[in-house]
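Annex B. Sample input.
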Amino acid sequence: MIQQWFATMNEILDDLILRYPHASGEEKNQLQQQWDMLKTLSDDIIESWLQFEDKMGVYRELQQQNTNTAEPPRSLGSFIKGQGYFKLHMFEQASQHLEEAIELYPDFVGARLFLAMSQMHMKEWGKAQRHFQLIAVLTEESRLQAIAYNALGCIQAIYAHLERAQCYFEKALETDPTFGDPKLNLESCKQGNGQLQLQFGSAELQTLVQV
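Annex B, continued. Sample output.
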């Protein structure tokens, strides 16, 4: 049912995209009204989905109260919203909520990791670097450490510090040899053709970090 509903919305939007360049002034006004309707529906869907995620988080919080979780209850709401926006590739909004979570609990590695990745997507390299450096120290999870080292290597490569970048990629591989991104990045740096193809592990967060 949901898939069919989204398919219908996509069909309407595809039609608007095709018609708009050749539409008359009056027709463009009509198309704009249809787009406004789709935008309103989209905003309502996102808000409703985030509210649903909040309630899901409350249930997970109740479960975790008996498992000595490291994530504090007060930070869950901000983290869940930030994680939700991250999955929607709305990185600016994600950063705002994730920063709130970190203010409540600076050692919350999950929130800090999503925040650093959001900042990578927004090309805020300096801010992301500071968070990844902290993550490498705070976490004892090998994959999360490897993601942090790999991201730090990407930042050094972006700054054209290729030797430093290779050191970070090698450290990521030592920490977690099964993590493929640093291996690819290391090979890209060694090729030295001036066109780096960097993988900084963003997709890993979808499965690695759960509240």
